[in-house]
Amino acid sequence: MSDVFKKLSILLADTYAIYLKTQNYHWHVKGSQFKALHGLFEMQYTELAQAVDEIAERILIIGGKAPATFREFDSLKRIKDGDSNRSANEMVTELAEDHGTLVKDLNQSIRLAQENQDEGTVALLSERIAAHEKARWMLNSSREV
Q1: Dihedral over Cα of 19, 20, 23, 29: its sign
Q2: Distance, CA of 78 to CA of 35 (rounded, Å)
Q3: Per-residue model confidence as pLDDT tens digits over 122-136
Q4: Which CATH number fits domain 2-142: 3.10.129.10, 1.20.1260.10, 1.10.246.40, 2.40.30.10?
Q5: How far apart are CA 51 and CA 47, in angstroms?
């Protein structure tokens, strides 16, 4: 189960990182897409905040200790910090790519949970895959071409 715990800890850190980046972009987005993106980013970071809690609780349920400090998150995360000076389109593109990264990581993690017969984690990861796929789709559909 320790491998599952390690994977969930990384996913928690990455989820927190994309939550924070999405909130950053919500605050700083500018331009003709402001209203639509401001609302989209708010909807997404609100959903991500709930996901952070659910992943942390799952870690505790399986007997681990959830990382809970910026130092711990920074050492585990792979999602890069957001740059609030980016254009609206760059913000959207970057967030879509980040959600894609999480979908890949979640698919790997779900196989590990299945190998460990951890159906509770499998269920959580399945929900997270669907949520990140939807977020990525919404962001990609919001890009200016």
Answers
A1: negative
A2: 29
A3: 999 999 999 999 999
A4: 1.20.1260.10
A5: 6
CA 111 to chain CA mean position, Å: 19
Length of the chain, please? 145
Longest dimension (CA), the chain: 49
In tens, the pLDDT along 19-56 reads 999 999 999 999 999 999 999 999 999 999 999 999 99
- Token reading at 134: 């939807």
Taking the C-alpha atoms of residue 79 and residue 95, their distance in angstroms, rounded to an integer, is: 10
119 three-state secondary structure: helix
Tell me if 44 sits within 8 A of 100, measured CB to CB.
Answer: no
